[in-house]
Amino acid sequence: xxxxxxxxxxxxxxxxxxxxxxxxxxxxxxxITIGATDAPTQVPGNITFxxxxxSKTWVVSGASTTFKTTDTIGWAARLTDSAKSSxxxxxxxTVDSSGTETVVDTETVNVxxxxxxxxxxxxxxxxxxLGAGTYKMRYTRPSDGTVLATGTVTITA
Length: 157
Hints:
alpha+beta, three-stranded antiparallel β-sheet
């Protein structure tokens, strides 16, 4: 993992707080059962990003991996397994051109129903506010370190 300059650390810290507030305010989980009506883009283990998200079915519309800084972006993470934990860890990292990841933020996601296997975030401007770049997101079960879903999104100016 590489180090960030003082100015970049301040920018990342400020934006990480904005992301934390957005994630906390919007609520990142739902106690729902996923069945045959899943959108085809919601493949187990993948985080699907989009411009719209149905908070009852967690179906993503406007799915893409590239957005502008001004776009509203939400996501649905279809886990490879149920949460099986009272919390999950949501990690966001920048990815540079060589593939090196630098963690920007790590948040605890409270899980209401440990049988849940899909989590989401209602679209807002928090990811775009991080600025142009490529970001990797992952949901991990803290008890055993299992990565349950990952996704990569690119933000352009």
